[in-house]
Amino acid sequence: MKIVYCITRSDTIGGAHIHVADMASWMISQGNEALVVLSGDGPYCDFLTYKGIPYETCKHLTRPIHFFKDLFACFELRSKIKKLRPDIISLHSSKAGILGRFASSGLGVPVLFTAHGWSFTEGVPEKKARLFKILERFSARFANLIITVSEFDRLLGLHYGIGSEEKLVAIHNGMPDINDKARPEQTDGPVQIIMVARLDEQKDHQTLIKALSLINHLNWSLVLVGDGPKENQIKGQAKKNDFSDRIQFLGLRTDVGKLLSQANIFVLITNWEGFPRSILEAMRAGLPVIASNVGGVSEAVQEGETGYLVPKGNAEVLAERISRLISSPEERSQMGRAGRMRFQDNFLFERMAEQTFQLYQNLIKKK
């Protein structure tokens, strides 16, 4: 089987990027062919090279909406699909997902689109959400199947008329397991809080900083992993609250597993989500998770058992939950162990990969 994966950006490495790389690697390990089509020549291209995954770039494929560039990108994608002659096309991210569906129309190749969180989900700015509802409704007809990474997103898609019951399939994200020795260790120093997230409009670092200002008297430190346009704004907010020296901005990293193993509490404070892989990474590392209750987050985090779900934008509740875990090493350990067990029982990569591969095979049989 030959599969072409398509994703929009190469200038960053987010959850969808890791998903594509993991699936492509797994396909190759199973004796299949896999190739990634994307834009630019950013760090994700280096990551694919490191993983031994072949890729091709599209000159006109960009993230911002631009009529003429998008039209050229559509023709460019169609040309690549004709040249590569795949058995399956797997599309990821909104822009590549929409253009890729148009580009593959009429070529006789089965098309899957994976929605890593809808671009019209709750919390997305209203103007953007309205546009993407229209685009997703129209382009859904050009996909054989649409995979959502949470049941929340599958139901949301159905609610807004994005495909049918038969076309929308929910498959939770999964991740490869790690060595059993990679676990967080308690220390005598500050309780280390970590958040792995891009510094952009989707994530809500501002509420996290506000919550920490309410518990500035406690012994904590914060590690922020990720890059993005809001870095200076967040640094300015931390400086205003007089605890810049307690926060590390590490930027884009490829050793997230190691960083998690050195932390005590994982947080993901955000405005909208699909089904965050970063939460699964934290559960895999045995960390208690505090996360905004948006999207499919509650399908991973069990309230009061593996962590806490907090209302979006509520700094006071967030501060109380962080304070509780800072003050209780026993609760941190108990929740971390429960999260680790939940990860092993429900979110291993092999389960996700095999479910997805079965969809590939079914589509080829129907071709």
Description:
The longest helix has 18 residues, at 67-84. This protein is α/β, with parallel strands linked by helices. The mean pLDDT is 94. The protein has two domains: 2-176 and 348-366, Glycogen Phosphorylase B (Rossmann fold), CATH 3.40.50.2000; 191-346, Rossmann fold (3-Layer(aba) Sandwich). The protein has helices at 15-29, 43-51, 67-84, 94-103, 126-139, 151-159, 205-214, 231-240, 256-261, 277-284, 315-327, 329-346, 349-366, and strands at 2-6, 33-39, 55-58, 88-92, 111-115, 145-148, 168-170, 191-196, 220-225, 247-251, 265-268, 289-292, 307-310. The radius of gyration is 21 Å and the shape is globular. Helix 3 packs across helix 4 and helix 7 (205-214) packs across helix 11 (315-327). Strand 1, helix 1 and strand 2 (33-39) form a beta-alpha-beta unit.
Keywords:
367 residues; alpha/beta; Rossmann fold; 2 domains; seven-stranded parallel β-sheet; six-stranded parallel β-sheet; 13 helices; 13 strands; 17% strand; globular
Topology:
Blueprint: E1 2-6, H1 15-29, E2 33-39, H2 43-51, E3 55-58, H3 67-84, E4 88-92, H4 94-103, E5 111-115, H5 126-139, E6 145-148, H6 151-159, E7 168-170, E8 191-196, H7 205-214, E9 220-225, H8 231-240, E10 247-251, H9 256-261, E11 265-268, H10 277-284, E12 289-292, E13 307-310, H11 315-327, H12 329-346, H13 349-366
Parallel strand pairs: 1-2, 1-4, 2-3, 4-5, 5-6, 6-7, 8-9, 8-11, 9-10, 11-12, 12-13
